[in-house]
């Protein structure tokens, strides 16, 4: 411990009626560090006030800060706004916008739609089948 800390501790433990020793009894300080020590003693902070804090500062609640910075879901408000309008874009315009916003990667591409095949009609008629049956099997 330094001598100044010990001195301060003794000052705190002194009886309340007694102050400092009379000036004649104080030990004199002569030497090169005397002026610096006096300046340090004079600038010693008062124990009652913390000068590191800003005057008038209000301590913020951690919960309030969390709620301020928490992400907000705007889905309901956005849907209400979008459904409120009566204008509906054409299918071609919506496809164009979606194509512009789509990336070039394969995972961003929509799945290819398989074209539905029309059932192929038969070339032969019922009469042709009966004729073939008669010729092949020999039935009348």
UniProtKB/TrEMBL annotation:
Molecular function terms from GO: enzyme binding
Superkingdom, natural source: Eukaryota
Cited Pfam families: AROS
Keywords for this protein: Nucleus
Protein name: Active regulator of SIRT1
Lineage: Eukaryota, Metazoa, Chordata, Craniata, Vertebrata
Protein family according to the UniProt entry: Belongs to the AROS family.
Cell compartment(s), UniProt: Nucleus, Nucleolus
Keyword Oxidoreductase: no
One annotated Gene Ontology cellular component of this protein: nucleolus
Keyword rRNA-binding in annotation: no
Gene that encodes the chain: Rps19bp1
Start-end of Basic and acidic residues biased regions: 106-120
